[in-house]
Amino acid sequence: MLTSLSIKNYALIDNLQVNFNDGLSIITGETGAGKSILLGGLSLILGKRADLSSLKDNTQKCIIEAIFNVSNYNLQSLFEAEDFDYEPQTIIRREILPSGKSRAFVNDSPVNLNSLQLLGERLIDVHSQHQTLQLTSNDFQFQVIDALANNTSVLEDYKGELKHFKKLKKELKDLLEFQAEAIKEHDYNMFLLNELVEANLIEGEVETLEDEYETLNNIEGIKEKLAEAYQLLGEEELGLLSNLTLLKNTFQKLSSYSTKYEDLYNRVNSSLIEMNDVFDEVDELKDGLDEDPLRLEVVDAKLKTLHNLMQKHVASTISELIEIRNNLDEKVLVTENLEGTIKKKQAEISTKETELNAISKTIHDKRLAVIPELKNQLESILVSLGMPNAQFKIDITLSDEFFANGKDELSFLFSANKGGQFNELKKAASGGELSRIMLAIKSILSNYIQLPTIMFDEIDTGVSGEISNKMGDIMLHMSKTMQVLSITHLPQIAAKGHSHFKVYKEDVNDVTQTNLVKLNHDERIVEIAQMLGGIEMSSSAIAHAKELLN
Question: What's the rounded mean pLDDT across residues 455-465?
Answer without folding.
Answer: 80
